[in-house]
Amino acid sequence: MTTVQQSPPTPAATGIRPKVVARTGLYALLAANVAAVTYFAADAGFGSNALIVLARFAGLYGALFMAFQLLLVARLPWLDRRIGMDRLTNWHRWTGFGLLWTLVGHVVFIAFGYADLAGTMDPVNQLVNLAETAEGVLRAVVALVLILVIGGASARWARRRLAYETWHFIHLYTYVAVVLAFTHQVAIGTTFTASGAATAYWYGVWGVALGSVVLGRFVLPLWRNWRHQLRVSEVVPESDNVVSVHITGRDLDKMPAQAGQFFLWRFLTRDRWWQANPFSLSAAPDGLRLRLTAKAAGDGSAGLRHIKPGTRVFAEGPYGAFTALHRTRTDALLIAGGVGVTPIRALMEDLTGHAIVVYRVRDERDAVLYDELRDLAHAKGAELHLVTGPPVPDRLAPRELAALVPDIAERDVFLCGPPPMMNAVLGTLRELDVPKPQIHFERFSLAG
């Protein structure tokens, strides 16, 4: 353990937390659009068949959910820095289930409603007849089938069995479903054509949603990479299975990256250009270079040590809300597990106030970047604890962690490590009554 003189404290963050502002803004945006959709649907008239009225509302809310889903995964910097890609992705997933059920309800109510109007008991035949005779209905059926396939691929049991590349390829069909659903709405949507205001509203909804995706996922990455011209400057082995990659470029002092964030990195070699891997910055950006540090856990990360200096790099980002922006207290506790130390090491440079760093590894040989942490702790007046040993017994159980950090409930806690370790530590923090707003973590496995 390294313990040195405490540095002068800095004031704690004040005001409304950025995460609360962004989350409240998203809820308010969704609620306002639900109200607008309801108003325009009512203004268009309800009709005499209750099932068809229900179908109309289900379809409209489904279209709104689809647009909202696009906004959640557009990777807009303002939202991402305040909420985090992992949480936005999780909200996207749950919104997707809402979309799935509203669209299924739309089709079921339409089929039974038109069967009721025709005086038959054959809703399937009515749906087939609509697909053959009504403009845009066949496109809507194809869109629903695509949504069902995508929803099935996103179910937890399927997601665990699919390679990321396969899952991502299936999800690309979401954009096909969006186009088909929109053309269906334009062709026969009663609410869409009921008034000029309704038509303008829906064009605005889809324009903002698709425009956000184009801006966040295409325009910004292309602009930043053209501006900064990133290249590998050095590849440094940190241990037998851990390597650091140093990257330089133009005007890096103007890149809006913060300690704790990550990029999706593409190294433009013949055999790697198509792979995008999420790696955190392992040093705070200094305006001259960026550094990532990765453990060999697959073909993508294992191949990093063979990259040649001068290799061009295409980086998407920076992403993530695991930054000092979310500080609520003067002092901090940083808990790292294994190679999860990389964003913690970067954050340590950026944080002010007194910091305690707890680094959990199985063996001292696994303590990547430990020498750097020790030097930083000495320079910043921080405490550094290296906790070693097998996962059981838990070295970071409530009693053990409280002994290391007696004032833990008065500190911000930044946590990064393997999922089992993070889950265990989050349970420990709950038992120690650490307020939830003071706990900061990001599940980087969702970054892709």
Automatic annotation (TrEMBL):
Keywords: 2Fe-2S, FAD, Flavoprotein, Iron, Iron-sulfur, Membrane, Metal-binding, Oxidoreductase, Transmembrane, Transmembrane helix. It is found in: Membrane. PROSITE patterns: FAD_FR. Residues 225-325 form the FAD-binding FR-type domain. It is a multi-pass membrane protein. The chain crosses the membrane at residues 20-41, 53-73, 94-117, 137-158, 170-188, 200-220. GO terms for molecular function: 2 iron, 2 sulfur cluster binding; flavin adenine dinucleotide binding; metal ion binding; oxidoreductase activity. Its cofactor is FAD. SUPFAM superfamilies: Ferredoxin reductase-like, C-terminal NADP-linked domain, Riboflavin synthase domain-like. This is Ferredoxin reductase family protein. It comes from Streptomyces roseirectus.
